[in-house]
Specification:
mainly beta, 2 helices, 265 residues, 61% strand, 15 strands
Length: 265
């Protein structure tokens, strides 16, 4: 599979890093610290792309593009955050392992935002559901799955922000000829501010497939740039990731994660 879209995206992001450096001298510290908070009290729309240079099996490349929308809402006195994620998958498909591209499965979670008494500490927990919306059978699970999500983000320090996203889901109905889903994922993340809105980041997602006793443990190190504006905060980044331990088919051996996050104030 050729990669012109990935190369163009990477080049555009690097140009943006260079072009906005001066503007970040006036960046608000609060905007910068909260720009990577998955529970921030803002409506957000994010575009993320994982270019997977090599899979464990088959020895092929792949790509996964995600569109994500998040919005806070209230139910009575309680505060929540809803996030919906829809992928466009490009995967090698058996038996010839030619690449197929199409929509993947839609995931939605609603996190109840716990009042910690500390505005810099965000904690959420709630249900998630995944719907079999794939446009081609091979690009999705063909299963309905449900589970839980728990996340934490600590922005107490203007220099280092950290936290995690922990999730689990299992299938409860779907196609009889497809494998059941029973998947856990843990995404620790840390962001180190360099000044002027520029930061270092590490956000790789570890996963364990309980159905097949397989797993993936990657690590990542990347760089990002926060660009605050009056009513929106832009956040662009690039983060190469490499597997340090894995077992089973279909896991990334290495990948490059690039993205654009927008928070609307």
């Amino acid at each position: 599979m050729s990669n012109p879209r990935f190369l163009f995206t990477t080049a555009a992001l690097l140009c943006l890093f260079a072009g906005v450096a001066d503007a970040q001298d006036q960046a608000a510290a609060g905007d910068v610290a909260q720009a990577n908070n998955p529970l921030a009290n803002f409506t957000a729309f994010n575009l993320h792309n994982y270019y997977i240079g090599e899979l464990t099996d088959p020895d092929k490349d792949a790509n996964q593009f995600w569109a994500r929308f998040a919005k806070p809402f209230s139910i009575g006195p309680t505060n929540w955050l809803m996030r919906a994620s829809l992928p466009v998958n490009t995967f090698p498909v058996a038996p010839d392992f030619d690449h197929q591209t199409g929509l993947g499965d839609l995931n939605v979670f609603a996190a109840y935002l716990i009042d910690t008494g500390n505005p810099a500490l965000s904690v959420g927990i709630g249900p998630q559901i995944t719907a079999p919306t794939a446009s081609k059978d091979a690009l999705g699970s063909e299963q309905w799955s449900a589970g839980l999500v728990h996340t934490l983000f600590n922005a107490s320090s203007p220099k280092i922000q950290y936290g995690y996203l922990l999730s689990w889901q299992a299938s409860f109905t779907g196609a009889d000829d497809r494998n059941d889903v029973n998947l856990g994922a843990f995404q620790p993340f840390v962001f180190y501010q360099l000044g002027g809105g520029t930061y270092l980041r590490s956000t790789a997602v570890m996963a364990y497939d309980f159905e097949h006793s397989s797993y993936s443990v990657p690590i990542g190190l990347g760089i990002g740039q926060v660009v605050p504006r009056e009513k929106v905060v832009f956040n662009v980044f690039i983060e190469p990731q490499v597997s340090v331990a894995d077992d089973g088919a279909g896991w990334p051996k290495w990948q490059v994660f690039v993205g654009l996050n927008t928070q609307f104030k």
